[in-house]
From TrEMBL:
Highest taxon of the lineage: Eukaryota
Keywords: Membrane, Transmembrane, Transmembrane helix
Organism of provenance: Coemansia reversa (strain ATCC 12441 / NRRL 1564)
Protein name per the record: MFS general substrate transporter
Transmembrane segments: 46-66, 73-91, 97-122, 134-153, 165-184, 219-237, 243-264, 276-296, 329-354, 366-385, 397-417
InterPro entries tied to this protein: MFS_trans_sf
Length: 462
């Protein structure tokens, strides 16, 4: 296996994610001796934390092009080390102050690393492997969450055991920066057909100008409702997680993205046709998820038993307790389909971005915006519901409105998918094809930041 091959680089990236994201998802709740709460785990109810996540995604789209993927992953590795060190400090000093500070820093590092990872995963695999490569990296995260929830459920360990495990986790995470440094610069990567991924210098001014310009692009504008709507729907419906089993089912549902990845990758039709069929699958799953959610909120709650003096959280807790008592199977089905729908939305959106362009510079902007707008949708939906009057808390008005927004968002997405071709020619009008097809990219004077040589992209099916 060549060191500069995409496969080797994706393997190194996998190791970095195992030592950072996966390790944290696996042990976070257990090490802190906290069972998952009944709050939505996707979007923090404390809005400043969610706002940081939104801004981090936008900042990451600049950094991917300015400083490169390797530097971002080194930074993320360091924030992960600090986070695990803060857990060790918690058991050593008894204070959570260090943890609270490093958790925010690690949240920023995570968003940076996630944008960089998704950009690479969209760029390195051949066209027949894009969806499956995305699914593997997303499942790595989802599966770690599921196992971590099971460990939390079964873990009855003492503080001494948790302290020792946190030391082990800290030791393992210390390897991540060294693996990150082993990741090659993008301009060294050579696909199996001899095509280079070309890295060229850029400036902050160029990035700001380019980012502003891309928001004038009709495809970005058509994608924005899709990015925003489903996270907003899930949060506006305010689906809390009352039991560990509910969270596990939600996580397991997310793993079903492998079905969509196969539909998108297997060469039974053109990419446009596969995209349209998968969009139909997504619409069906989202409608089922939303319908079951509305059914839970409509049929399982006796509003006459709700005290007007209750807080919003008490009302939500009553709704969930009533749902568990009256129809446990329907409630758990809600979480499973919510997991399936949310992962389908994420995978499909990133796949569409990857099929529209091979320009990693544009891809970074799309991915960073996608990550941030999803966070904004969840944050706005959750905060909107928390702020409405109590008499509307148990109504389905927010859910109906957000459900309508989600359905409507699939319409502009349909027009984006119709633009998909089998050659990724979306940026051909703005990319010169005078770059090298093999050998070094050092001699070029072009100012495009990072592109795949699209002149030969149709040959790259490995």
């Amino acid at each position: 296996m060549r060191y500069y091959s995409p496969t080797t680089q994706l393997a190194l990236l996998s190791v970095v994610l195992l030592l950072t994201t996966a390790l944290r998802r696996l042990l976070d709740n257990f090490l802190l001796r906290e069972l998952p709460t009944d709050l939505n785990p996707t979007y923090d109810s404390y809005w400043p934390t969610s706002l940081i996540a939104c801004l981090s995604g936008f900042l990451a789209l600049f950094l991917v092009n300015l400083i490169g993927v390797r530097s971002i992953l080194v930074f993320y590795s360091i924030t992960s080390i600090l986070l695990f060190a803060s857990v060790v400090a918690k058991y050593t000093t008894g204070s959570m102050a260090f943890y609270k500070a490093t958790a925010i820093i690690d949240s920023i590092g995570y968003d940076f690393g996630r944008v960089a990872t998704l950009v690479v995963v969209l760029a390195y695999p051949g066209e027949r492997w894009k969806a499956r490569a995305l699914a593997i990296f997303l499942i790595m995260e989802y599966f770690s969450m599921t196992i971590g929830d099971l460990i939390t459920l079964r873990g009855q360990a003492s503080d001494d055991t948790r302290y020792k495990m946190s030391v082990v986790a800290l030791s393992l995470s210390c390897l991540a920066p060294f693996v990150s440094l082993a990741i090659a610069p993008i301009n060294k990567i050579v696909r199996s057909n001899g095509v280079y991924l070309i890295a060229r210098e850029t400036t902050l001014r160029e990035e700001i100008t380019g980012t502003i310009a891309i928001f004038k692009n009709k495809y970005m504008l058509l994608l924005l409702p899709y990015m925003f709507s489903y996270p907003f729907l899930f949060s506006a419906a305010n689906v809390p997680f009352p039991t560990i089993l509910a969270i596990v089912l939600y996580d397991v549902g997310k793993i079903f993205i492998v079905l969509m990845s196969l539909t998108l990758d297997v060469q039974w039709a053109s990419r446009k046709t596969r995209g349209l069929v998968s969009l139909a699958m997504l619409v069906v799953v989202c409608i089922i998820s939303s319908a079951i959610t509305i059914a839970i909120r409509t049929k399982q709650v006796d509003k006459s038993k709700i005290d007007s003096t209750w807080s919003t959280q008490q009302i939500y807790q009553y709704i969930m307790n009533a749902s568990v008592t009256n129809n446990r199977a329907l409630l758990l089905t809600t979480y499973f389909f919510a997991g399936v729908a949310s992962s389908f939305v994420e995978l499909y959106g990133f796949w569409v971005i990857g099929t529209l362009t091979n320009d990693i510079k544009a891809s970074a902007r799309f991915v960073g915006t996608f990550q941030s707008v999803m966070s904004i949708g969840g944050m706005v939906g959750y905060q909107l519901v928390r702020g409405i009057p109590h008499q509307f808390t148990t109504s389905n008005i927010p859910t109906y409105i957000s459900f309508g927004m989600t359905v409507l968002s699939f319409i502009p997405m349909y027009f984006v998918v119709r633009r998909i071709t089998d050659t990724n020619d979306w940026t051909l009008a703005s990319i010169s094809n005078n770059g090298p097809t093999s050998g070094s990219a050092e001699g070029s004077s072009e100012t495009i930041t990072v592109i795949a040589d699209v002149k030969y992209q149709h040959l790259d099916d490995n």
